[in-house]
Design goal:
Oligomer: single chain
CATH superfamily of the largest domain: CorA soluble domain-like
Strand content: 15-25%
Low-confidence stretches: none
Radius of gyration: 35 Å
CATH class of the largest domain: Alpha Beta
Number of helices: 9
Strand order of the largest sheet: 2-1-3-7-6-5-4
Shape: rod-shaped
Order of helices and strands: EEHEHHHEEEEHHHHH
C-alpha cells in the first residue's frame, strides 16, 4: 500500500494512487509512506526519487554502513521500532529516505506512530514544510514511546524487587526465568535506543542535513533525551542483574536448608542405627537373652538421639 502526502496551496492532501506521483511532482510531495509495498509501487517510487529502495534483508543488516549511508542528494536510514508483544518485544524494521524536501518511509507492519503523524500532518500542515521536519517529528515521538517502554520496564523491575523483599511467593526457577526475560527486553530497548542515537548523530554531522537552526536544535534535544534513556536503561539492567543474583542466592539458601535437614536427620539416627545393627547380628550379645532387653535397647537408642539433639542445640548447629 502506498500513501502520498503532497502540498496543494496551504493544505496537505492524501492520495493512494500511483498516477499521482508523476502528476504532483517530487517538489510538491512531502511524504511517501510505503506499507508492505508491491513491486510496482516500489519501482514507481524509485523512478520518482532516482534511486534504489533497499530490500527488507538489506534494511535489517546490522553494519553501520547499512544502517546509515548517503547517495547523491539522498540520505538512507534504517532503524527498528519496538512495541511490547506479550512478555517479549516485537521489532519492526523501518527505512527512511530523505531526498530533497521529500521523505519516503518503508515498513512491513502497521505502526500507530505513523498513523498519528499522518493525522497531525493533515490537521496542521504549517508545522511540516518539508520531509525533514516530518522525520524529526517521527523520531521525537518514537523516542517518547521508547521512554514509555523504559518506564514500564522500570516499574516491572520495582515489582520484582518488592516480590522478593516481601516473599509473596516461592522464589524458584520460574521466577528467575521471568527476570531473565525482562533482562532480555531491557537489552532490546537499549540496543534500539543506541541505534537511533547513532543515526541522529550521523545526520547532524552530514553536510546534507538541513541548515534550519530550529531543526538542528530539535535533533540535539532528541539526542539528549536518548542519552538520558540510555542511562535509565543501564540502571534498570544493573538492578535486574542484582535481582538475578539475589534470586540465585535465595534458591541456593533454600537448597542448602533442605540438605541441612536431611544431613541432620541422618546424623541423629546414625548412633541408634549402629546399636540396632549390633543387636541385629546373629551372635550372642549382652542382655540379648533377657525379656526386658528390647525396651532397654529401644530406650538407649532414644537416649542417644535426644543426646545428639541437645549437643547440636548447644553448639547452635540447628
Amino acid at each position: 500500500m502506498i500513501r502520498i502526502f503532497y502540498k496543494q496551496g496551504k493544505e496537505v492532501l492524501l492520495s493512494q494512487k500511483l498516477t499521482e506521483l508523476a502528476a504532483v511532482g517530487k517538489e510538491n510531495i512531502l511524504w511517501i509512506d510505503l506499507l508492505a509495498p508491491t513491486g510496482e509501487e516500489k519501482r514507481a517510487v524509485e523512478a520518482l526519487l532516482g534511486t534504489e529502495i533497499q530490500s527488507r534483508a538489506q534494511a535489517e543488516e546490522i553494519e553501520s554502513s547499512s544502517r546509515y549511508y548517503e547517495e547523491d542528494d539522498a540520505i538512507f536510514l534504517n532503524t527498528n521500532f519496538l512495541s511490547p508483544s506479550g512478555e517479549e518485544m516485537a521489532m519492526d524494521p523501518v527505512s527512511f529516505i530523505l531526498s530533497g524536501t521529500c521523505l519516503t518511509t518503508l515498513r512491513e507492519s502497521p505502526l500507530r506512530s505513523f498513523d498519528t503523524l499522518q493525522l497531525k500532518l493533515q490537521a496542521r500542515p504549517e508545522e511540516f514544510p518539508d520531509g525533514a521536519h516530518l522525520f524529526v517529528e517521527m523520531m521525537d515521538k518514537r523516542v517518547d514511546l521508547d521512554a514509555d517502554i523504559v518506564e514500564i520496564i522500570a516499574k516491572e523491575v520495582s515489582l520484582f524487587s518488592k516480590r522478593i523483599n516481601q516473599q509473596e511467593e516461592d522464589i524458584n526457577e520460574e521466577f528467575l526465568l521471568d527476570i531473565n526475560q525482562l533482562q532480555e527486553n531491557a537489552m532490546f530497548v537499549r540496543e534500539n535506543i543506541v541505534d537511533k542515537q547513532r543515526l541522529i548523530s550521523n545526520i547532524l554531522k552530514s553536510k546534507r542535513c538541513p541548515r534550519d537552526p530550529e531543526l538542528r536544535e530539535s535533533l540535539s534535544v532528541i539526542l539528549q533525551d536518548i542519552a538520558s534513556l540510555i542511562n535509565h536503561t543501564n540502571f534498570a539492567f544493573e538492578r535486574l542483574e542484582y535481582l538475578q543474583e539475589t534470586v540465585v542466592g535465595i534458591i541456593n539458601l533454600d537448597q542448602n536448608r533442605i540438605m541441612k535437614i536431611f544431613t541432620f536427620i541422618s546424623l541423629l539416627l546414625m548412633p541408634a542405627t549402629l546399636v540396632a545393627s549390633f543387636y541385629g547380628m546373629n551372635v550372642t550379645l549382652p542382655i540379648a537373652d533377657k525379656g526386658w532387653a528390647w525396651p532397654a535397647i529401644l530406650g538407649f537408642m532414644v537416649l542417644l538421639v535426644l543426646s545428639l539433639w541437645v549437643i547440636f542445640k548447644k553448639k547452635k548447629m540447628l
